């Protein structure tokens, strides 16, 4: 991609902390975000996603490398860049004692916008967030989903070129998540560039044009969701469950079926281009699983293949 077409460009981007103990949170990563796309950072806890987002948002200085945002150096044009960015942090920073409308008004004043202009934009933003009937309600009266929609609406008051969303739907119920996805998709359709972090594979697949998978401060893979699935996993996965006392022995007998076999504590995964053929091969070896499920591979398989299954706190 032509560098001039990149809304965000990072080369060797690094963030280190003195500690104690000293550590590197982001270890020399390269990426570009194109205007009008939704770009996602995917990774386990501690992978460096949020640290990268804070550097893009000009709230945390880089330790090394290059970072250009909107054609400006993030180190020398911090104020000008922040004026063109909308930010949706992991935790809502709304003033719960104020009304929905007042939260947008005060946030708009941070950007030096005239009150009349903020009120004009507030009408459109509340309609966008489906909160028009809640404009006079105090934030403390809103549900979690309404608060997230208000936080996103508030982040748009300065009509930003770029919106940063750090775990935008964490803690929301399925209905609220899907409504938020629909609002974010509409934003992208309107030409707003989105950069988000998420733990949800379905969210990444639904929203992101391209993804960077991070682990231990590095980007270990990047591409569209479809490209990542095609590159790192097979077309299908066969999931088998056996009796606990037969689990290990059955897994050994199944080795060699498919392209790759993974043994989990509760099931055996066989990665293959044809799950039904793999199941027939398993049964020809005299194995009789308690359950057998053939499914299409997805981003979760890619994620676990690249970052492992160890629990990261």
From TrEMBL:
<dbReference type="GO" id="GO:0005524">
    <property type="term" value="F:ATP binding"/>
</dbReference>
<dbReference type="InterPro" id="IPR017871">
    <property type="entry name" value="ABC_transporter-like_CS"/>
</dbReference>
<dbReference type="GO" id="GO:0016887">
    <property type="term" value="F:ATP hydrolysis activity"/>
</dbReference>
<feature type="domain" description="ABC transporter">
    <location>
        <begin position="8"/>
        <end position="241"/>
    </location>
</feature>
<keyword id="KW-0046">Antibiotic resistance</keyword>
<dbReference type="GO" id="GO:0005886">
    <property type="term" value="C:plasma membrane"/>
</dbReference>
<comment type="similarity">
    <text>Belongs to the ABC transporter superfamily.</text>
</comment>
<keyword id="KW-1278">Translocase</keyword>
<keyword id="KW-1003">Cell membrane</keyword>
<dbReference type="InterPro" id="IPR003593">
    <property type="entry name" value="AAA+_ATPase"/>
</dbReference>
<keyword id="KW-0547">Nucleotide-binding</keyword>
<dbReference type="Pfam" id="PF00005">
    <property type="entry name" value="ABC_tran"/>
</dbReference>
<dbReference type="InterPro" id="IPR003439">
    <property type="entry name" value="ABC_transporter-like_ATP-bd"/>
</dbReference>
<protein>
    <submittedName>
        <fullName>ABC transporter</fullName>
    </submittedName>
</protein>
<keyword id="KW-0813">Transport</keyword>
<dbReference type="InterPro" id="IPR027417">
    <property type="entry name" value="P-loop_NTPase"/>
</dbReference>
<keyword id="KW-0067">ATP-binding</keyword>
<keyword id="KW-0472">Membrane</keyword>
<dbReference type="InterPro" id="IPR050763">
    <property type="entry name" value="ABC_transporter_ATP-binding"/>
</dbReference>
<dbReference type="GO" id="GO:0046677">
    <property type="term" value="P:response to antibiotic"/>
</dbReference>
């Amino acid at each position: 991609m032509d560098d001039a077409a990149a809304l965000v460009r990072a080369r060797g981007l690094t963030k280190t902390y003195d500690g104690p103990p000293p550590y590197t949170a982001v270890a020399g990563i390269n990426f570009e975000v194109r205007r009008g796309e939704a770009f996602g950072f995917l990774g386990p806890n501690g992978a460096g996603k949020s640290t990268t987002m804070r550097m893009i948002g000009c709230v945390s200085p880089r330790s090394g490398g290059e970072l250009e945002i909107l054609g400006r150096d993030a180190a020398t044009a911090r104020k000008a860049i922040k004026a063109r960015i909308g930010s949706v942090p992991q935790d809502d920073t709304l003033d719960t004692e104020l009304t929905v409308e007042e939260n947008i008004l005060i946030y708009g004043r941070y950007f030096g916008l005239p009150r009349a202009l903020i009120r004009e934009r507030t009408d459109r933003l509340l309609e966008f967030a489906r909160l028009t009937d809640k404009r006079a309600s105090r934030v403390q009266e809103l549900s979690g989903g309404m608060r997230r929609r208000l936080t996103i609406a508030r982040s748009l008051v300065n009509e930003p070129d770029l919106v940063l969303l750090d775990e935008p739907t964490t803690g929301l119920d399925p209905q609220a998540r899907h409504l938020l996805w629909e609002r974010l998709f509409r934003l992208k359709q309107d030409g707003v560039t989105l950069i988000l972090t998420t733990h949800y594979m379905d969210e990444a697949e639904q929203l992101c044009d391209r993804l960077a998978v991070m682990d231990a401060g590095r980007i270990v893979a990047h591409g569209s969701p479809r490209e990542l699935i095609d590159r790192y996993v097979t077309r299908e996965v066969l999931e088998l469950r056996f009796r606990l006392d037969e689990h290990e022995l059955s897994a050994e007998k199944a080795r060699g079926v498919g392209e790759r076999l993974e043994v989990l504590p509760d099931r055996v995964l066989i990665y293959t281009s044809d799950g039904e053929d793999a199941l027939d091969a398993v049964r020809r070896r005299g194995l009789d699983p308690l359950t057998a499920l053939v499914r299409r591979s997805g981003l979760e398989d890619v994620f676990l293949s690249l970052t492992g299954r160890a629990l990261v706190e």
